[in-house]
Amino acid sequence: MNMLHNRYKFSARVTCGLVLFLCLLFIESSNQKAYAQQSTNEKLSDVKSAISKQKTTIKQVGSKKQKLLTQLKNDDLAIAKIVKALNKTHASLKQTKKRLNELVKEKSQIIQAKKQQEAVLAKQLRTAYSTGHHDYLKLLLNQQDPGSVQRNLTYYQYLNKARINEIDQYKQTIAQLIEITNQQQQQAAQLQSLESTQNQQKLALEKNKKQRKATVAQLNKALLTSKQKLAKLEQEEADLVSALARMAELSKQEIDLNGLSKLKRKLSWPVKGKINRSFGSRKQDYLKWKGVLLAAPLGRQVKTIHNGTVLFADWLKGYGLVTVIDHGEGYMSLYGHNQALLKSVGERVETGEPIALVGQSGGQSQSALYFEIRHNGQAVNPKLWCR
């Protein structure tokens, strides 16, 4: 009995121990689960907070990018305005200098004529002096032969008339000389004023260029990833296609333009320069160039490839200052990244006529012309038309 009792007590102790162990194990497991749940909740909270911050950052970047794009547009337009004014001032300066040179030549000719007239008058005065200063009355009284009197009288009348004519001409020459001198002074003053205006415009241009450079740098900094750049390019291309579609509708009104179908490899490039980006080459990921990028110096004239009507002349996101020409029959040519636009919407242009100046608007780091040819809204290779 004692042995059975001892066994029972031992078994009871083991059972209690196991129960106690299991209880402790359960409690430990519960504690671990609670700790894990708490850790998971904390991590989830951290992730949610990070997502919220990221959304806020993305929103701020998007807002900043939009502001920078607006600033870029304003910078490009300000530069274009100054360049157009500078271009006009340069033309006026050229014309004024030409007029000044003409006035210098005219003045030289008048001075030469004045010297000749003075010589003639001096000769006439010496001739009159050599006759002894006789007046008509003395001539009449001292002459006995009526024929001689008449001849002398006619001679002196001729001399007198010639002298009066020379004096009148001399007066006119002096008046012309005074007038030319006044014009010369006015032109010189205008030249000085134009040069001063030109210097001010150049300073303003440099200031705006620096502002634009800073804007482009900030804009590039805002585009952190290639995915963002791709999205930007996709949006810009979509905007361009949409704008060209609207222009195509407007161009249907033109019935006297013959298009470009018969002009393959007969047209001149809009500007002389190396092709930095070819039609169809990779632009970003799967996006390809729909036109060509021609490297050219800042301010070089951009000329239309064929006659037509200006459909668009304004700033376009991603392409800067753009001119689009309608050539009829569904053909259009596009000229982008200009520094200034020389033609307005609705104007007719002839083949080879300057329509813009090469620039780097739209966020470009180097001066170049972006050039496209489209037919019925589809981009075609410009090399098939230009030589």
From TrEMBL:
Transmembrane spans: none
CDD domains: M23_peptidase (cd12797)
Domain spans labelled M23ase beta-sheet core: 289-382
Keyword Repeat (UniProt): no
Keyword hit for Signal: yes
Signal peptide: 1-36
Family annotation (Gene3D superfamilies): 6.10.250.3150, Glucose Permease (Domain IIA)
Coiled coil region boundaries: 83-117, 216-253
Domain of life: Bacteria
UniProt entry keywords in alphabetical sequence: Coiled coil, Signal
Pfam families hit by this protein: Peptidase_M23
InterPro entries: Cell_wall_metabolism_enzyme, Dup_hybrid_motif, M23ase_b-sheet_dom
Name of this protein: Peptidoglycan DD-metalloendopeptidase family protein
Gene source species: Thalassotalea castellviae
Taxonomic classification: Bacteria, Pseudomonadati, Pseudomonadota, Gammaproteobacteria, Alteromonadales
